[in-house]
Amino acid sequence: MNILRQRIRRAAALFAVAAGVGAALPAAADDAKQQYFPLATFRVGAYASSGIPVWAGTIDYLRYINEVEGGINGVKLFWDECETEWAVEKGVECYERVKGGKNGSPVPIFLPHGDPITKALTEKSVADKIPLVTIAHGRTEAIDGRVFPYSFPAVFTFWSEASSAINFIAERAGGKDKLKGLKIATVYHDSPYGKETQTPLALLAKTYGFEDIQIPVPHPGNDQSAQWARIRQLKPDWVFLRGWGVMTPVAIKTAAKVGFPVDRIIGGVWSGSEEDVRPAGKVGKGYLAITPFPAGADFEILKKIKEHIVDKGKSDLKDLKSFGSVYYNSGVNEAIIAVEAIRTAQKKFGARPINGEEGQWGLENLNLDDARLKEIGAYGLQQPLKLSVRDHEGGGAGKVLQWDGEAWAIVSDGWVKSDRELLLPLIYERAAAYAKEKRITPRPDPTSN
Amino acid sequence: MAFLIETLIGGLLSGVMYALVAIGFVLIYKASGVFNFAQGAMVLCAALTFVTLRDQGLAFWFAALVTLAIMVVLAIAVERVVLRPLMNQSQITLFMATLGLSFVIEGMSQLVMGASVHELDLGIVDTPVEVGPILVSQFDLVAAAAAGILVLALSVFFNVTRIGISLRAIADDPQAALSIGIRLQRLWRIVWGVAGFVALVAGLLWGSRQGVQFSLTFVVLKALPVLIIGGFTSIAGAIVGGLIVGAADALAEIYVGPLLGGSVSTWFVYVLAVAFLLIRPAGLFGERAIERV
Question: Which residues form the Leucine-binding protein domain (chain A) (predicted)?
Answer without folding.
Answer: 41-370
